[in-house]
Fold these 4 entries.
Entry 1:
Amino acid sequence: MKSAHWITTKEFAAADINQVFHRQLDIESAKNIKNDIQNKHILFRKNFFLKEIPENAVIRISADDYYKLYINGKFVGQGPAAGYHFHYNYNEMDVTSFLRTGENTIAVHTYYQGLINRVWVSGDNRHGLWLELYAGDEKILASDETFRCAEHTAYSAAGKTGYDTQFLEIYDSSAPECDFIHPDFDDSGWSFATVNLKDDHILVKQISKQLVFEDITPAVIQKRENTLFIDFGAMFVGYLTFQASGKKGDQITIRCGQELNEEGTVRYKLRANCCYEEFFVLSGKHNDKLNQFDYKSFRYVELILPDDCSVYENSICLTARHYPFELKQEYIGTDVREKQIWDLCIRSLKYGVQCVIQDCMEREKGYYLGDGCYSLLTYCLVTQDFTLMEKFFDDFLRTKFVNRGLLTCSNCSKMQEIAEYPLIMFTTLLEYTVLTGNYDFVRERFDAFADILDYYRESYAEEDGLLNNLDKWCVVDWPAPRRDGYETEITEGKICTTKHSSINAYYIGAVKCLNKVAKIIGHAPYTDVEPLEKAYISAFYDPERKLFRDDVQSQHVSLPGNVIAWWFDILPDEETRQNIIAMVREKRLSTVLFFTTFPMFCALVRDNESELMHDLLTDDETWMKTIQEGGTTTFEGWSKDDKWNTSLFHLTFTFAAAFMVDWKIKEIFTFDD
């Protein structure tokens, strides 16, 4: 059997590859990206004959951007996890149970989105399918030009939503391709696939698991005049399915939402800059089935029905998709409020983690480096599975091909650079080293981490060793009103020309973490950190107030400007430590959010202030606020109103659960320089 080829349509085979990678501030390169091919649903089919069912049949499959695989009319799986073309994932699945004696049919629905966003590496004109089917060690099928190929005409766009995150769908059940998965479907009118001779994917077996699926039935169904109202009881990520009958051309309007309006209708125009209004066009036959391709995050649905249209209520289902989740840690405390927060975080991790640890489930669906460090740690702690963390390190280290200082989001075509995020990853490396003891893994990547610090030093360090004039955005905390008045001008898209405390505390902290990792694995230290600490104190310390100023030109002191330095123990004396703790007691969490809270909690636990940490964690205005507002998943803030575009399913604040289990915080974040 010959080798598998990347197969595609003639359109894609003829298209030139788009260069979508550039530095964030290289605006001209961004303008030159011509992503004219968009929203293509491409189908492939192949019949093959088996004299007998093999004892062990395995398929290896990949597609760019994505695939859904069916064998003999049954859904098998989907993927792959997004990747760059030079390290592109394929999935391996046991498909023995799907095969039968005689003629078999493989049908694959592939999708090329074509948008520049944080979801996939798309907009590059790379599309195609690659697969190999093995019976034992014998390859019995490989993708080639004998596969049939057609565009799925049931799908058209109802606009885009989020930050160009996805196309909203109009699904027309009268399209001839709707039954393409079935073995008896007639594909004789389809074209043959084209082998893409220009393909440049380098395939690697995906180390992470594939998604699992769970059918959620409605908790409530109500008929309201011409509208069917559905409540699935909690927030999920996935696809709505149902069957309906009506006249040919009848259109059902589908409105999904995460919450209700005051009058009880579904708020389909989400806070998170998404408008979840889509359409289902009926064929005139009985039992048309909605088959949406892309996923959403929702709890509520309204189906607005035309006259004489029927929806079969027992067919209504939300197919939830998520990464396999096995809880290995139980909450062992006795605090009722803390247990509520634990349950909120665990449920969010179970239903929120997808192919990777992403931030929100709707607006960006982004694989973020900074936020991901905290939610990923929590996921690994409660499952005791560190596979996604290992993948996380390599995925982001791989972004050095764009910039040695790494990108903010990996495995996507959206170019963003936030200065703190790569430095936060050094804390995750230290945590991984201590928690897993997998020193060989760390040794293999030590030089790559050291190169990140080399880049920061070579590109941004001034004579005293501190960083300034960064062409990467410094977020400090987010949104801007949650920075406790941090005075430095750090607007995204501009170079910050004022030397400031937060980014330099992260930089010194990264050096400290790498030095500590080096000591653990028996490696020489990265560098002597003491000169950097002295320079930091000289630049930002106010000896009268015994606190750190935001920057070299400011007299303002803030929680972010002090908490990060406290976390990494860049303090001149014990009195400063106590002053920072006093500031925390006074301001609590009313002025800060993600990127100050996690370091604050770590420092509180390390410095024997666990009682204060617990008090903040269970405060009425933090996680309990989310619960009081009806949240069944963690929000992108303490409250729905914390941001102008709040995601109501955002994973970062799941890190509360990390502070309800023992993960050696004192050992990890005690620095003996």
Note: The radius of gyration is 26 Å.
Entry 2:
Amino acid sequence: MAEIINMPRLSDTMEEGTVASWLKKVGDKVSEGDILAEIETDKATMEFESFHEGTLLHIGVNEGETTKVDSLLAIIGEKGEDISGLLKGTGSTPKTEVKETAKEVKKETAVPKSEVTIPEGVTVVTMPRLSDTMEEGTVAAWLKKVGDKVNEGEILAEIETDKATMEFESFQSGTLLYIGINKGESAKIDSLLAIIGPAGTDVSNIAANFSVVTDVVETKAPVKAEESPIQDAPKQEVKAAVVQNAVQTHSNGRLYISPLAKKMADEKGINLSQVVGSGENGRIVKRDVENFTPVATSAASVGKFVATGQEDFDEKPNSQMRKVIAKRLAESKFTAPHYYLNVEFDMDNAIAFRNQYNSIPDTKISFNDMVVKACALALKQHPQVNSQWFADKMRLNNHVHIGVAVAVEDGLVVPVVKFANEQSLPQIGAAVKDFAGRARNKKLTPAEMEGSTFTVSNLGMFGIESFTSIINQPNSAILSVGNIVEKPVVKNGQIVVGNTMKLSLACDHRTVDGATGAQFLQTLKGYIENPVTMLV
């Protein structure tokens, strides 16, 4: 069945978008996650990826053309499928059909079920897309409460994305009339975040129409929003009713249990017949499963000693960052054919060079800074390693932007040192140190984590001797750097004490052949084992 793709809302203030370029043409095969087009918004030009698989059957907005949000952008379906019914008449899909299709396919965004008149001066604020990979956000904190005066430019809330926690400022002035997502709650892009308008304005009808679809998604209740008999109820009443409908109520002596409690019991292997419910009508709820203590089996009953105890574990929701890390790394590992080239470099000259360099007053560089600089210079000589793979083309980058992996509490971020080959060692060191500090405080901006052409991951400071990494797509390679080890080595036929460092280059075989990767490592070896050549 053909899927209708609309012009997405890529920022909270976006009303229309311009197609900067199409990366697919009519007739091309489209896989989920493929970049369909680059769309220019009111804030930036962003890549727009497909959430569907099939063949691109129709393009509704040509390159350079501008159209409103939710207008027909493209149609994806089976090859040769008849879409004349969708294009009949004006050549675009009626708005009502688009809404029904979007709701039927994904049920992800909070879309009003009926046309709602928005009073003059009232603005509906939705969960913004604060990074190109963001699919949902979590409200880390509200800096305003209902009834507060809001001025344009004031920080409304702090929102946790897949990459960082960012301040979200208001683009409107007025009174905060309604909060749709409480602190700590997560919601999809375009879900109702807040309503701002003149003080005293009644926005209950707007809130109710936006909240029903969102609540069904949150509670995972098997009740379609359009079938609910409480569509016009306030949000609190709607949510309570949806939850009630989601409860598995049984009669004739069967159990009353919530879906969450049943899932937890299944995971823990708990016999529900032994659990006493504390909910309404004796319903078993989450706390009953959490607080349940299993009955110990006596030794006499089995004729031998039985160890008793209680299995215990802690759970915490996956952060937005962790979700996207899992998704992106899985996509990279299972789509890019990885292979690995392992080398070991002599670091005696590098140690002497660093000691001499750091003897200069107010100057301090690390071995990682030297590796980043050496990679940048080597990449200029081997542009194939500095390339990126796309479904229909290969991009050989003439610029060198090196991503430096930084470990943070929730996972890993990769800030980017732009034009690294043109920067001095102290400049690279200062940039990496600044990025690392702000990354751990979740203060990096999306722009500072985009555009890498190559990535360096260094676990040497943790005592790791060697390891391999997963490529940070769409890049073609990533370098894994181990620690420097003092050990016996052979020099000029004699066994002496030396210092070596192991490195592993992971390559995408679609863009980098084995010989190409090996030649890059030879050039890199020359710079690292003779670091003075990086200054020439």
Note: Residues 193 and 360 are 53 Å apart (CA to CA).
Entry 3:
Amino acid sequence: MQFLKYVLATIIGLFLFFFLGFLIFMGIAMSASKESSVTIKPNSLLKISLNEAMSDRGEEGGFNPDNLLNPIQEAKLGLKDVIGNIQKAAKDDNIKGIYLSLSGMPLGFAQMDEVRQELEAFKEAGKFIVAYGSVMTQKAYYMGSVADEIYINPQGLVELKGLGSTLMFFKNALDRLEIEPQIFYAGNFKSATEPFRLEKMSEYNRLQTQELLNDVNDKYIATVAKSRNMSDSEFTNIMDQLLVRTSGDAVQYKVVDDTLYLDQVHDILREKLGIDEDDKISAVSISKYNKVKGEDKKGDRSNRIAVIYAEGSIVDGKGDDTSIGGDRFAEVIRKVRRDDKTKAIVLRVNSGGGSALASDIMWRELKLAREAGIPVVASMGNVAASGGYYISCNADTILAEENTITGSIGVFGMLANMEKFYNNKLGITFDTVKTTSFSDFPSSPILDRSLKEEEKAIIQQGVDEIYDVFLQRVANGRALPKSSVHEVAQGRVWTGTQAKKHGLVDVIGGLEDAVDIAAQMAGFEEGDYRIYNYPKREKPIEKLLKSLGESAKTDAIKEELGPFYHQYQQLKQLSEMQGIQARIPFEIEIH
């Protein structure tokens, strides 16, 4: 008993120690997370370096329980923050120009288009933009070409070779492992399953990928050529012939203005700012500038536009911060539509789809919002395809950027027959007792036997029925005959420009345009309303309790796999699929 008393006392003591330590830690963290006052000196530069992947919404700074060794996290700016800060800088008399630091550019083309448009508006406000980089990828150059002047390191390189997309196929690996995919799909272009059943692209997939790349490439050429005062044919020839192979070539063909070292670029910036060559340049990073208070746009609290950010894979249940959980988002939409202060909804979608069931659950809630008299506007980001299009299709108005990847109206189901793998590779066998002929009908995507023909027929029937529902949802939402939708569906992927021609999109534009349209539909004048962002952010304590044990594991896997972590995520996502899927072709990455 004495021993137990000591043990209990020790446990209680440790609990109190950690609890008090946690409270102190939280106090320090929350205090440190408060935005410090930032003052911008007159005659300053705004420095923008977009060298990290960026979500539409971004992440707030402050206490980060995922990394207890470095708990105070800087805010990660999202697309809306970058756009807002450029708009703020255009009106800020202390900001004279923007310095674009170009290196990697992991943003999607649709995101870059939205940023580029704001940079164009910044120049129209009478301010300058200078861009500089050492090694410019095609995406980095696309962004940098908006600048008044663009420079490159004398030993640097500009990559201009045309756009391409490479897909990875797993069929031969699965054959060697004796794993047999059991695949069902609706739509000739629904190519999400191709990596598991083919060794190369089908002709349908090759056609849609080629036409998508052509459309994005045409926009790339037209945009850059205009910015650099070239004809489209001139710039096309530069890319077709790979004429830019050195920094000198880049100057010769007027791709950049000159080859300079960074200190020489600083001299040019001093000249533009009108300061002496020995004076220090006053520059503020966009993350720091984010803390500067902008124009007060707060309107009437009772007039709200709810902006719902749907980013990531669509999954059943609640999901997490990186996915769109059907139940969680349906709850958010339900709460928003029941709030009599909500006068319009903007659904910002950046998703290649996922669970067909989860997509339908969210579609239903958005339909009820419209029936309640609340205007719904869908704004498509980099990708709003398959399930991402499903949840958008019933909106009053759908917007997309020209380079948005959308469509992919189709569904598929996929299971893995592991019988031979278990038997021949692992020496594992199975035996079953059942009460009916369908007692062992698959309830998991991992099978220990091959499907029977009647089971295959049942699953294919389910896929076909869901596809038919998908077509009807789009037909009703877009006021089109179902037969017309079928012609542009079948799982085919389109750019925003192509989708608009086919009636799948109404307006070419970004998130700001979507909010403006929602405000007009709600009858608001400028300054009459407030924007509320959803889903609501988790409180630090909630995030801590949920993340304990997860972060270290994820970091270890990332470190171990390095550049192959992306493929690991794809395979992990595959193993988590339940039910029929409405997903974009397995992976589209334009480089």
Note: The chain has 22 helices and 25 strands.
Entry 4:
Amino acid sequence: MSVPSAAQGTLPPETGASPLRQLKLLLSPRAQGFRNLLIRGEQRRLYIGLGVIGFLFWLGIFISVYFLVGKFLDIEGFGPFLARKLMEMLLASLFVMLTFSNIITALSTFYLSDDLELVLSLPISRPTFHYARFLDTLTQSSWMMALFGVPVFLAYGIRSDAGPGFYAALLFAVPALLMLATNIGITVSTLLVNVFPARRTRELMVLLAMMMLAGLFVLLRTLRPERLVNAQEFENAAAYIAQLSVPAPALFPPRWASEIISSTLLYSPFPYTEAALLLTGLLASTAIARWTTAWGFDNGWSRSQEARSARFYRSTVFDAVSSVLPRAWRPHFSKELRVFARDPAQWSQVFLLMGVCGVYLVSIHALPFEAFQGELLAFMKQAMSFLNLGMGGFVMAAIAARFNFAAVSREGRAFWLVRSGPVDPATMLRAKSVLGLVPMLIVGQVVTVGSGLMLEAPGWLLAIESLTTLFLGYAMSGLAVSLGALWPDFRADTAARAATGPAAVFFMVLALTLDFVVLALEIIGFYAGYRGLYGLAALVAAAVIALCVFIGTWPVARSARALWERGI
């Protein structure tokens, strides 16, 4: 008797094992792996540290929302409407981000996971496989709601003295919204891998990110949040309340969840229509996702085995560009340029960075400085120009996390070729750091110096901002490459995935702390110069330069030794 292939999905369930038991067995490896990572993993301390930082961040969100909701509720007449509008905007933003996150996660769990060959060879039914991967995708993508949503909902409930009905509504609406976003992500990822080559599908994620940001921006502009704090734009109180009461589109799932939660929060009549829409929408999306994977999984997974074409490997342009660098750096730099050029998921992000710079400069130009005059206007413009250093540092930290931190992880399973060759690890890391430093400095200088020019900042302030951006970018670039070498993820299928792990979050915390310290030191230096203490101002400037040079140099050498000591 012949045995059907696993790829056809016709194998019978394991004898004596129920579908629930099969589902449990499929999910147990990930649970055991996470348990072992916390107990014996080399990143255990990192996860514990991130847990502490995450709790503090969670607590900060809770306190902020508790204070904000309290201010809203203290506004007589308008408070409940403001609180309801804020809930609607929150759920809409989280739902859009969750949907995009689920598309990427479903693409990895359903079609690009390393264990698929083993799982598909097991005697399990296709529905069991689908729901196991559904739960896997849901778990991986729901951390955003847990981190950002739970403290907000708790702050709402505690500050509003909500009853048990509010928490019961949360237990119904929030999981339903999470599962609905997961079903949409699975459906879209299946359609994508059947229309485009699977490896190229990952390259489309940048385009989807732009679409998500554009959609979120349009959504927020449709809700017009700035009108909530300016009642004078309305003819009377009735018009103001009517504007606050305008809901999101009727067939938008976050609106259904918002109506359910807000009604129990404000002790309004329960919206049975929205509850029925949310429940039926969840069931319908689950069926559609299941039917879509039943139709397109085999073809999608087969196409995911296609290899990426080796483009640009014979071009001499990259060697010419690398010729200006030291001889030991040239092979590494040339190779990194080739990898960057042949991966649209990398170079297409240049357009996203340009868009970010454009939006930021337009926002700076639109600031209401007409409210100030005389010396106060000049002071406000100079202060805003100087504070742009903080925003420039934040943007550079995000770029470093995306490009520099993942530089070592991008070697993937071919790292053994680099490790077994006559390669100096410190030279390799410095070459990767220099390549990632270029986009950081371009964006950082545009944000800081460009906004300073728009604010008519004096030349001496622009020079200080430019030099600070240069040294701060050097420090963040070296720090990112160093931490990426200490905790590389050679199993990551994309650079984006390598740049979203716990070590990357740890880097962002350190980078933003460095940004804050540099900004604080320069404020002290400016104050010392204003008071005529030029010696102290020069000492502070030297301390900033020394700190940035040290952080950009010493960790590279230390992490290079650690990277080579870990073996192949």
Note: The two ends are 45 Å apart (CA to CA).
